[in-house]
Amino acid sequence: MSHPFKPWLALAMQTIPLNDLRRHNAGCNEEFITVASRVLDSGWYVLGENVASFEREFAAFCGVAHAAGVGNGTDALELALRALGVRAGDHVVTVANAGMYTASAVRSVGARPVFVDIDAESLCVDVDGLEGVIAAGPAAIVVTHLYGRLAEIERVVELASSHGIPVVEDCAQAHGASRGGRKAGSFGDIGCFSFYPTKNLGALGDGGAVVTSRDDLADRLRQLRQYGWTSKYVAQTPGGRNSRLDELQAAFLRVKLRHLDQWNAARRAIANRYADGITNARVSVPARMEADSVAHLYVVRTDDRDGLREHLRQAGVSSDVHYPVPDHRQPCMRDDFASVNLPNTEHACDHILTLPCFPEMTSEEVQSVVDACNSWQP
Ligand SMILES: Cc1ncc(COP(=O)(O)O)c(C=O)c1O
Description:
Blueprint: H1 7-14, H2 21-26, H3 29-42, H4 49-62, E1 66-70, H5 73-83, E2 91-94, H6 101-108, E3 112-115, H7 127-135, E4 140-144, H8 153-162, E5 167-170, E6 178-179, E7 182-183, E8 190-194, E9 208-212, H9 215-224, E10 229-231, E11 234-235, H10 247-257, H11 260-277, E12 298-301, H12 305-314, H13 343-351, E13 352-355, H14 363-374
Parallel strand pairs: 2-3, 2-4, 4-5, 5-8
Antiparallel strand pairs: 1-9, 6-7, 8-9, 10-11, 12-13
Bound molecules: pyridoxal-5'-phosphate (PLP).
């Protein structure tokens, strides 16, 4: 039987996706099936041997003493704040360009986010801008390592610790990013990770983890993720809830953790090909990436985002915006933050565009993205 030519299908097949989880996970399929059937056979599905092993392996990967699996990255942030004793009415300092995950967690504990502006180049927290708000005595600071690049975390920790303020790292986009031999999550008091499927280390569903080298915080986090239990059915720690990692996801994550360094290196290589190859003066690319970035998202800037997006679309290149609406302008927040102005944050949200960057991209696909960017003439 002959197959009729379907131009729409040909076009769809040529489009370079922003990410391709089928391709990404395909290499692990056989191992996934093996470990999944072991979990099935075990009859134990939540917080079991796989979770305990993954926690040990992930803590070692991050260079910290403890990891505790939780339900997702937003829960990780909320539980971290609770473990640090953040309470209703407290202030928590953070940035407003990182998808509102931290602001949601802060509001879940009844605290109020205090937004500081970002550095115009790195798009991470502007540490100079932190000094003013730190003096007001916030209960915690959450630093997001956005797009896979470590923020100036050493400076933040130094400044915060001189005022006795704890630091939480949001590492949801930065699994494995390192500087000076230290990994994301090991600089502050607690590091929070998401294993949402698109993350550099992604589960086949939701998942998250908190990491810390402090024994007291690790104990409290383990209690908080399971109803505040100090022992079975004894809820002693206030603020507890149910946010656990299940055995299947932990088993999949153990398989994938073994590939993470290699995947991160592949992402960086793509990012550096973009940095070298995209020469269109209207497309501003981030600096070349070293170990301190794991290229979770490749974000360029342009003064005509809609124009570039449309040109890329016509060239078969997908793109997206991470994130278009700053937290303080979100519909559920803006009334409370009407007087807050964050010029660098607002400017970035209007000018950023994310290009495809995932470890399995072919060399031809990378070149097509470069060519599409360079052929744009607004
Ligand atoms: C920077 C950042 N923080 C937190 C989260 C929240 O993670 P989750 O979607 O697992 O709740 C995400 C992921 O979407 C993220 O990108």
